[in-house]
User: What shape does this take?
Amino acid sequence: MHEVSIMEDAVRMAVEAAKSAGASRVLALRLRVGALSGAAPEALRFAFDVVCRDTIAEGASLEMVSVPAAGWCPVCRAEFECADFINECPRCHNPNGELRRGRELEIASVEIN
Amino acid sequence: MCKECGCGLGGGDVKIGGHSHDHGHDHHHEHEHSRGGKTLSLNLSLLEKNARLAERNRGFFRAKNLLVLNVVSSPGSGKTTFIRETAAKLAGRLRVGVIVGDLATDNDAARLRTAGIPVVQITTGTVCHLDAEMVSKAAAQLDLDKFDVLVIENVGNLVCPADYDLGEDLRVVLLSVTEGEDKPLKYPPMFHSAHVAVVTKSDMAVAAGFNRELALRNLERISHHARIFELSAKTGDGMKAWLDFLVQQRAA
Assistant: This one.
């Protein structure tokens, strides 16, 4: 996918947040990466080291929290685990489940100093 | 307590060593708990910048009373012919303007221009998708007051465009009969995100050995919220239902 541009945005957001809080360093970034986000964690990590260079986030650590995918069945009115985009309810086999979680690609928090 | 790292298990943000740590995740990652810094919660989407610009586009397009389509597919599924025939056959009912994205060449734009359709080309260079900012700049080059429908022909790619909202009303994914019935299963994020799925080149179905039932079944599994159309832009077969749908969507 486009992990480098995603990481560029993550680091830009972290640096902006740090600067507006009066900090001089970004020590850590914490991301939430959905299982169905399409972003590969290894590629994000690789891009991270590159895009941090020459910024106040250089040397920062990267934590990635994986978010498992979950669907919602409107018939059973309950959530179910799903491994892919086929949102079939495992209880009633209704194929029209709604993907509730798993597409996340978010910056949760930054640690600054 | 979480056995792996000793921090409190359970919902919500838990402050540990100066930084928050929420749960529902595994603990195979390594991290220090005492960097001595201060934690700022951000909770922002990494595609937030694009999402914001896309919403701005959507509001602008709505104010202009435009129906906006984002047409996506693999290279060679027939996007340009489909858009050209849609615009031509809507003549007298709806006026159509087009934004075309490609990595290089303006061949697609030229094909549309030759057909008398107002078009702006975005040449993305190495970028494999259009984003909301590119669309906003391209739209500024069109006299939008002259149109009822704005069609955005995305870069031929079933992967990255899935993540970039352009501010469209409808995301339209094409699947041509020559591509194989399992495309929706292979590129689920794109097919899952589509509001409309169009099976194109239906005139070639027999020659291509297209298994229609299987393709529709796959589409219904992945694109289960989508309206499905089957047509041939070349022969015009099946176009009427699609055009009527657009007229109805524009009026809605």
Q: What stands out?
A: Residues 1-32 of chain B have pLDDT under 50 and may be disordered.
